[in-house]
Known about the structure:
The complex is a heteropentamer. Chain A is mainly α. Chain A has helices at residues 6-26, 30-55, 59-89. Chain A has a domain at 28-97: Helix Hairpins (Orthogonal Bundle), CATH 1.10.287.3510. Chain C has helices spanning 4-19, 25-52, 83-106, 112-134, 138-156, 163-194, 199-207, 217-232, 241-244, 250-259, 264-271, 273-277, 280-303, 307-327, 331-358, 376-390, 396-410, 414-439, 448-462, 471-477, 500-515, 524-529, 547-553, 562-589, 591-600, 602-609, 614-662, 669-689, and strands at residues 60-70, 73-81. Chain C has a two-stranded antiparallel sheet. In chain C, helix 15 (331-358) runs antiparallel to helix 17 and helix 18 runs parallel beside helix 24. In chain D, helix 1 (2-20) packs antiparallel against helix 2 and helix 2 packs antiparallel against helix 3 (48-72). The radius of gyration of chain D is 21 Å and the shape is globular. The chains are: A mainly alpha, B mainly alpha, C mainly alpha, D mainly alpha, E mainly alpha. The interface between C and E is medium-sized, with 27 and 36 residues.
Amino acid sequence: MNMVAVNHYLVLSAMLFAIGAAGVFVRRNLITILLSIEIMLNAVNLTFVAFGRALGSVDGQIIVFFVMTVAAAEAAVGLAIVITLFRHKESLNPDSFTSLKW
Amino acid sequence: MTFPILSSLIGLPVLGAVLLLFVRGVDEEQTARAARQIALIVSVLVFGETLLLWSRFNPASADFQFVERYAWIPAFGISYAVGVDGISLFLLALTGFLTPIALLSSWESVHTRTKAFCIFVLLLESAMMGVFVSLDLFLFYVFWDAMLVPMYFLIGIWGYERRLYAAIKFMLYTMAGSVLMLLAILGLAILHYTTTGSYSFDLLKLYALTVPRPMQFWFFLAFALAFAIKVPLFPFHTWLPDAHVEAPTAGSVILAGVLLKMGTYGLVRFAFPLFPLAAEFFSPALALLAVAGIIYGALVAMVQPDLKKLVAYSSVSHLGFVVLGITAMNMQGVQGAVYQMLNHGVSTGGLFLIVGMLSDRRHTRLISEFGGLKKVMPHLVAAFLLVTLSSIGLPGLNGFVGEFLILLGAFRWDPRMAAFAATGVILSATYMLWMFQRVNYGTVDNEKNSMLPDLRPREWVVIVPIIATAILMGVLPNLFLRPIEPSVERLLNQIHQSSTTRILARATEPSALRPQPSPIHQPPATSAVGRVLPPSQNASADRRGLGGGGLDPADRRVRKDPPYSSSGVAR
Amino acid sequence: MLLLIPVLPLLGFLINASFGRRISKSAAGAVACAAMVASFAVSALEVWQLVSLTEESRAIVNHAFTWIASGDLIVGLTLRLDPLSAVMILVVTGIGSLIHLYSTAYMHEEPEAEYARYFSYLNLFAAFMLVLVLGSNFLVMFVGWEGVGLCSYLLIGFWYQKKSASDAGKKAFIVNRIGDFGFILGVLLAFVRFGSVDFQEIARSAATLSPETTFGTVSLITLLLFVGATGKSAQIPLFVWLPDAMEGPTPVSALIHAATMVTAGVYMIGRNAVLFSHAPQTLAIVAVIGAATALMAGTIGLVQNDIKRVLAYSTVSQLGYMFLAMGVGAYGAGIFHLYTHAFFKALLFLGSGALIHALHGEQDLRHMGGLKKNLPITYWTFLIGALAIAGVPGLAGFFSKDEILSSTYFSGHRLLWAVGLLTALLTAIYMFRLVLLAFWGPSPSASAAQGASAAQGASVVQGDHVPEHPAPEHAALQHPAPHQAPQHLAPSTRLHDAPPAMALVLIVLAAGSVLAGYAGLGGRFEHFLEPSFTAQVIGSVRLPPSPEASASANASARQIDGGTETLLTVTASVTAILGILIAIAYFLKNRGAADALAEKFAGLHRVLLNKYYVDEVYEATVVEPIHIVSRDGLWRAIDARVLDGAVNGVGETVGGLSELLRHVQTGSVRAYAGSLFFGAVMILGYYLWK
Amino acid sequence: MTLFYVFAAVAVGTSLLVIAQRNPVYSVLLLIASFGALSGLYVLLDAPFVAVIQIIVYAGAIMVLFLFVVMLLNAPHEDTEDDLRVHPLLRPGPMRFGAVLAVAFAVELVWALTKAGESGAFPGGAVSSVAAIGRSLFTDYAFPFEVTSVLILVAMVGAVVLARRSGAGTSE
Amino acid sequence: MNAGALNAVVPMACVTAAGIAAMLAEAFREPGERMPIAGLGAVGLVGAALAAVLLWNHNASSFGLVTADNFGLFVTMILVIVGVLSVAISGPTVERERLPAGEYYALLLFALAGMMLMATATDLLVMFLALEVLSLAVYVLTGLRRDSPVASEAAFKYFLLGAFSSAFFLYGIAFTYGVTGSTHLDRVGSLIAAQAMAPTAMQRLAAGLLLVGFGFKVSAVPFHMWTPDAYEGAPPPVTGFMSTGVKAAAFAAFVRVFLSAFEPMRADWGAILWVVAAATMVLGTVVGVVQSSVKRMLAYSSIAHGGYLLVALLAANDLGKGAVLFYLLAYAVTNLGAFGVIGLLESSARQSPATSHQPPQNDQVRDYAGLGHTHPVLAGLMTVFLLSLGGFPPMAGFIAKWYVFSAAMKAGDSGLAIIGVLTSVVSVFFYLRLVVMMYMTEGERPATFPAVPRIAGFALVVSAILVFYLGILPARVLDWAAASISTIF
């Protein structure tokens, strides 16, 4: 019934992963960068599910469940850090935080 | 269980240093005084122990004596193995001898952080002792590296103006050389593992190892680099003038007197016997560098305006002799080299002491600042003269015996090397006497020099032992040479046997075994290319001190095997 | 017992060196003299013993202890007395004692500490010299060899506050070291070749060889040894130090730089006669160098104005004679001349010392004259010395010179003989120029002030005869007004002849200069020495001397042709007398002629006055270049720039790289992520490409 | 089949728009759309449970959190005037470099994945019942499940500690 | 499931429990009441240590996901030491910076639990979760000085890059799962071994992406760039903690994954790691040379030390694995000591807005001038730690480096060994710069350093003693290290 091969899903997830990775670079907004990382995690989730389906096991789906937990935790901590950061400089531009260098 | 005398040589200074940590007087001054006295007592005790060691040393035996061996890191075959043979015996005594003198020499000139100073000197002594008694390569390396730290502090804290530069240069330069040696040591241990199934850093076991030829070359280079920097062999010497000049007197004395010997000692103890084939291959190049160093050091010393620098460059020149003797790899060469190590320790140590006395008085080391000192300080100048003469190798004083033996050894190997090296005899007289003249003769032109005090009692105590030793070693060299000889003999046997057997094993054509008379005035080629693979016994026979070049073969009588080539101590 | 001979002076040295400052001058002098005299006594005793031995076993060996033993090199501190060293120790201790005695008076104006120092050095010298001649092997000899060099250095630079003196001392030492360079190499080669450094063993080994027809190992050994001899005995090309050595006190010049130390080279060749006999090529070189040195030094001596320098060049010249003798194989003749020369040259130097002493430091001949009346003892003894050295028949120099010349002639080196003869002529001329200028003619006291200023002027122009300042002058140096020296020449100053100690010595030496030559009558001297020039006895078995060696050794003894022999003797005598006459003609009768001659050959005169510019040439070709290359080339360029630059360069490179790389760390988190991502892309790229 | 492409196109398109947006609010909303498309894909992959929690947890909870923070911070639009002050390496050039890297990365992955010629088709029996997942989660994966509790605890503590108002969090 | 099945997780359970207890203690604390919260942590850590000792040689396994083999237990012990020392040296900083003590210690303990889990996990998923636990905790610890913009920036950078790299790591797990159908290292290993001859592209992707993830955690070049910034911004005890603890956990997992599961593919990743290791050593030391901030300098030094560990890992022989363990231990003791000294010296960094861009005081190398006079003991301890880091005998650092280079030599990789020894010479330069400052330079101003609290001082002395112990009598520890690797590889 489903004629789409695993590879298609994998390619799709690869593209999503790359888009997420690119997002870290092209945007100068901390929130968007965090979102990009969420895209990357989702791309990985897709891979897991696709592999799980291909392997005929539930492990893939369960791993996705854990990944989502991790993503949530990361988001929580990340956003908290963004908030503290914002309090110091009223800016969400990552490039305005460069006092640590060299 | 007998008293572990060698361990106590290492341990006693450390104990002294630890004791010093807890010395605390009412005020700075009292602390300093107590620290000095304790350190002096400890170092004198250590010296006494070295003398005891000497008296109990069996001079007829070639083997390591007073050996102590405890497993340290058994999984890697690392043991705490110490022992002493004729080669190291006197280096220990020298270390023990110079340390109290160095301490005394700084009795008044070091007035800041005296306690720390004493601690570092004692730690340094311990490490130096360790280097000379180690029979385990790992242990050796530990002491070798550990010794850098106290020396670094001695230069860096109590040195002169550019002390930081000098200290760091000393440290990094020496380290850079020695780390590669560490790798070579590791390589040896691993080779031992692959051939026997167990790791070992034990020198005697590694001696017995057959190291493949290419490996020998790399390992030898690594060892030789480390030692060449330490010696220092031209052109690796540039750390030395800086370190010498900037170090406090005690530092210079120990640096020149003992530390430099570690390089040459390393060559004799490790680099050559461990890698005989490579040693054979590289020794002409080393000798060339040594000879270059003899001449170069002397020439550069000649034009130095700074007394300490002059002495430092003279060290380059003198140590060149030592290396030359070692590369000759025959009895006189090596024995002379060992002897010259001691001489240099005494003479150059003495020179640094004298220079230290002058700079303590005048706070300058520039030759041009002095002049006419003989009028002002006749005793000091007399001492200066004797030390100078000892340094330039006047017969009857210590320097001559070593230099002559080295030249003889080198001459038997390659007369041309000896001829060039002998020019050092001329040059050393030139620069030393010129310096001596400018400092001590003439009229007192500089007002500041006119009221300088002559030798103080403490300085008498410092300089008299040096001079007495110089004379003793010049008049009764056999006292020292006799215990050295069996060990050198064993060493030479080891090197030549292993290289000869391997050469024989490799040489398949019978022609290679036929001894070929060397043509008159045509010594065996000494260029690296020419001596790549000495194909015949002839070449190795030459190395055994049978007199290579310049001789017609008619007179077989004197070319019969010298005693040390026929029967050796079975290992 | 033999050991006592050098040890006694050594004891003297130790006493004076340790306590010299605390004892009186007379005590110090007494100690030194006593040590020497005792040594002389022991020497005499030992020699007496030696002579009483049979001719075959005439050697006394005293092995003290094994000095150096390393493998097959075993060197004992062994002293050996044989005829050759017997002659030498007698000369050294005998003349040495006399000069010690002389010095007690000569150096009397020195302060106590300096006085003791002087005598301690002198004693030390004697000790080393005795070690040199008694040493039975090269190394022990070398101890003495270098030791006397050291003492020479110390004594030349005795007045260390004077730069010229300390310069001269240093120069002497360094030039000697150049010779030692050859000497050591020679010893090394000898050891490698013969397996020993012992003279006897080497001689025995060498005796079995046939002389080298081509330049072989033995030739090389001997040549290298000879290089050492040229240094010690001031031969071409290493003679330059000896004239400068006159900076030392005059007795030192007499002892070290005339009678004993400088002859060490000759002695060394004599000691190794067997070896040298096997190297005819080297012998030829020795002879040529000797003759050339003799001639050259004679020509220079002709025009020098400093009395001590004339004597110094004369010494060089006479040493050349000795080498000529050695070179033609007439070892006995050479040693004979050494022995006679010791007397008359010591006499001449001490005489000149008395002269200088009397004149309070004046050494310039041009400011002397007419002194024979004021200084009769000095004059007469000096005259005897001059006659002796000139080779006037009946005096010591005649016998030995005649031996040398005839040996040279008979050895077939006719040209060398001619040169020798010419040198003899020159010797007579310059010696009598000296005598005449100093003791005859008008006294310059009337124009002393002018003379002083002229001396200054001359020194500026010629730079070679700066008035030297021996003892009295030196004493003045230590007082506030050092530069008033010329005033001592004021006419009011009383001239007084040598004090008794000095006079006595002069007289003894004068007697010696007359009589010493008779020891050689009938070849007795050579015959006595002969065993030393052949491979020696071991026990009672005597190796046959190699025919060539004995042939050359006996060359002079054998009466090849009695007529020719006589003719040669006559020629030599005539030459000596001719020389004296020429000197009288030019320097007594017609001084203007001499000056005119100098004018006429102004160029030559200048060259001679400046000693062929040898010092200048050495300075320009060796000393300066080495100095410049060392300072600007090796030290400042190679050491500081290249080698140290490379070392520091490594550090700087690391530092620079560090500075460069740290700026990659921009602080921007996106750049950091970029780095991470880049790493990921590269890793995957590598993986997939692979 | 078609659905796959539709969902895929939506996912890629919205994701691209997420990173193309200057306004973070739009980005968040677009990302929710993207997650919806993913959820559809999960359904296609016989993973309805994941599809549901994707909507509930991800889109519903996490994204709302984001939105909340955006609102809280009154997130400004990306400011461009900062560009002038920053280091040359941070100018658009490096940004493009990042994009290029991303493209390269995608190309590498896609090349590797397509080259790997593994069986394209999915095997038959899909195990996707919630019961199976639940059973597995609380037996085989019980321990990881417990670990996540610590994880969440840490995140909670961390978020609280960090985001607390200044001065309130001191030990006093 | 019997009770024994839980054995393997007991150490981390102890630590977690301690963390929770610390949190609760803080929550129920009356304002102003002093409470030994750090002591609670210490108790938990001691419990973990006891558990580890009891589990030694038992090879206990829980859930099939966590295996308390000797390897893991050795790392656990290292982590316990790291934990104890970190707790001990944290006191002054926590007090001075007025950090929330309960949360601070709780997070520290949670991070430790995560690290222990990471070291003992035999399943990639668990490993990932553990990684996240420790990472999140450390991110927060880094940014705990909320009023310091520098700390927030550091936390943010660390977090962002960490999350970014986690994605790569996770993606790697995904491919591993896809290739092998499991996240269990055993099964992954056996499947990869079956295809070792011709690894598929996906296998390679998996290995490569995992390398990126680990590379980040061990701060290998070019994944290192967060390190200096995060280390500089974090409070010194935290820096010490993460430079040692995180590194230990990450390397343990790294070794476990790459030397067991992915071992068959070593030919592939070996070459990559070679370059990475070389670059890491070189860059870490070279850039360290010009640093003027002490913490930053030690951060670069930490990068370099990561490089040496990579060398050991790359050698992949018995020596290499043992070397990793020993090195981690030696480095942990030494570096924590150094950061302890720094923490004691760093004066309050509370800044007014005007000075908010200034780095913390007493962090510059020149601030240490004259320390040898004013605080001889602290300076002496610091010297010991620095010399150990530089690899001088007879200190732990020397033995550690020696072990690493033996491994490399045994593996025939003299190239890396040469780079390693040469860079360690260069590194000596910058360690010595600090020594020069302390002893050979006079301070411009009278250095005012706070007094040393007893516990922290004691911890430093203990560290120094350990440094010497490991340097002089390493045999026993070396044997343990060797024994612990033999159980799993």
